[in-house]
Design goal:
The chain is an alpha/beta fold. The protein is built from nine helices and eight strands. The strands form two sheets. The chain has a six-stranded parallel beta sheet with strand order 2-3-4-5-6-7. The protein has a two-stranded parallel ribbon with strand order 1-8. It is globular and about 45 Å long.
C-alpha cells in the first residue's frame, strides 16, 4: 500500500458550512473524488467503498438539505439525538440511520426502534439487550464490532486479541447481522501511526474470516473519517464515516465528540 498519503486532521475549521442543496452536492462530489483518487492509488473500485455522511451535532435543517442532495444514510453518535432526528424525519422512508457511537445497554431499546445499523458493538451484554429489543420489534440490525486498534486505554472498543472469541459468541443473537469491524484510529497528524491502526483492523478481519461462524461473512471494514479516510481506503476500508467534509466544521475538533471510558460528560 502507498505510504505517502497524509492525514488532514489539521484542517479542522477549514470546512465551510454548507447552506444550500448545491453546497451539499459540491461537498459530496469533492469527497467522492477523494474516495476515487484513493481507490485508484491502490487499484480498488470506488464502488467498493460506502460513504456514510455523519450528521452528528448538526440541525435537522442541514440533514434535510443533505437528503435533498442525495444522502440516504446518516451517521449519528448520540442515540437520543439520532432518535429525535429520526422521529422528525420519519416521512423520508428511504433514509437510513447508522448509530456509530458508544451505547449504554439502557439505550439499546431506542436503537432497536429505528436504526438500520450499529457500528460500536463491544460487549455481550449490549448484544443481548439489542437482540432482545429487536426481537420484540420484529426487526434485525446490521452491526459492526468496535475494535480498539490504537491501544489507547481510554478508548472504547475491544482489544484485538479477544475479538475472535467475541465474534463466535455473537452467533446466538439471531436479530444481529454481524457485517464486520469498526475502529477509530489514533487521532494524529502522524500518518504512519494512523495507518497502522487500519492495517491492524484489516489483518484482524482477514484472520476472522478464516474461522467465522457459518453465515457470518465479516467482509466490512468501517474505518476512516474526514481527516484520514483516504489512508483507510488504501488499507481496505469498505465504509468511511465522513462528517465535517460534508456538513462543515463543528464547533470543536472531531476528537472532542468521541466519548472515552473516563469522560464524565460522555453521552449515556
Amino acid at each position: 500500500m502507498t505510504s505517502e498519503t497524509l492525514t488532514r486532521h489539521d484542517q479542522h475549521g477549514l470546512y465551510p458550512e454548507p447552506r444550500t442543496v448545491e453546497d451539499f452536492c459540491s461537498n459530496l462530489a469533492t469527497v467522492q473524488a477523494r474516495i476515487a483518487a484513493a481507490c485508484q492509488r491502490v487499484g480498488r473500485d470506488p464502488a467498493s467503498v460506502r460513504l456514510l455522511p455523519v450528521s452528528k451535532t448538526k440541525p435537522q435543517a442541514s440533514l434535510s438539505l443533505a437528503y435533498a442532495a442525495g444522502c440516504r444514510w446518516l451517521g449519528e453518535n448520540k442515540v437520543q439525538e439520532a432518535f429525535g432526528k429520526w422521529e422528525s424525519m420519519q416521512d423520508l422512508t428511504d433514509l437510513h440511520w447508522s448509530v456509530i457511537g458508544h451505547l449504554q445497554t439502557n439505550k439499546a431499546k431506542l436503537v432497536a426502534r429505528f436504526a438500520s445499523e450499529f457500528q460500536a458493538l463491544d460487549s455481550l451484554r449490549l448484544a443481548e439487550a439489542l437482540d432482545r429489543h429487536l426481537q420484540a420489534q420484529g426487526r434485525s440490525l446490521d452491526v459492526f464490532v468496535q475494535v480498539n486498534t490504537s491501544g489507547e486505554a481510554n478508548k472504547y472498543g475491544l482489544n484485538p486479541e479477544v475479538v475472535p472469541a467475541f465474534i463466535r459468541q455473537l452467533s446466538v443473537f439471531s436479530a444481529l447481522r454481524v457485517r464486520g469491524l469498526m475502529t477509530l484510529a489514533l487521532f494524529s497528524a502522524e500518518a504512519e501511526r494512523v495507518r497502522q491502526c487500519f492495517i491492524l483492523l484489516r489483518q484482524l478481519r482477514d484472520q476472522l474470516q478464516q474461522c467465522a461462524p457459518v453465515g457470518m461473512e465479516l467482509d466490512a471494514l468501517s474505518m476512516g473519517m474526514s481527516g484520514d479516510f483516504e489512508i483507510a481506503i488504501e488499507e481496505g476500508a469498505t465504509v468511511v464515516r465522513v462528517g465535517q467534509a460534508i456538513f462543515g466544521a463543528r464547533a470543536l475538533p472531531d476528537s472532542h465528540y468521541w466519548p472515552t471510558r473516563f469522560d464524565p460528560e460522555a453521552p449515556r
